[in-house]
Amino acid sequence: MKILIAPDKFKGSLLAMEVCNAVEEGILKFLPQSQITKIPLADGGEGSLSVLENTIKFNRIYLDVNDPLFRTIKVFYGLLNNTAYIEMASASGLQLLNKDELNPMQTTSFGTGEMILDAIQNGATKILLFIGGSATNDCGIGIAAALGYKFYDEFNSELKPIGENLNKIKSIDKNLDVSFDDIDISVLTDVNNVLYGENGAAHIYAKQKGANEKEIEELDNGLKNIARIIESTFKVDV
Question: What predicted TM-score, i.e. pTM, was given to this entire model?
Fold first, then answer.
């Protein structure tokens, strides 16, 4: 009998290849003559690059970045020719935090931005960004801050790029540290949500990232606010 094992990870317990190995072990106990093929899969969340590496033999580029709470961690992204493969969860993911640290009011995607910046500085002109499994609800202002954007409140004081500050943003300084004129970015995700409202990022995902009901409302209002600021600053309706 030929058997194909092709699972995603079991979030919080096993990586996809570990699932493959466990299932294979169980099958072989009862069907020892089976011909088993293992193909670990991923959905854009944690472990995506490890799965992709089985097929695409990219170079691992290691660097130190900020984790979701601005602590230094070592991560890697993949680089092959001019294409960078970047997993958001490795720098800004839920798996980096203890349960009592989960709080999307305080977390940031800054470390993911540091990886993007490093990839561009290393010659990448195409970026594949896998965005599942993040611990953040900062609307990407952490990523933007790492690339040179600055966010200011009504007193023209610069704001830390975290979720709770979304509602305080009144203006954006768009003097970038890097040019995106010739950069092609593709975002890989297995979900499709509007930015805010009943089916928006805060109401659908913030609870699993540690937010209570009051914080979910605050984050949702923050997303509405940043959407208005983005539209007035860049003439883009998000």
Answer: 0.88
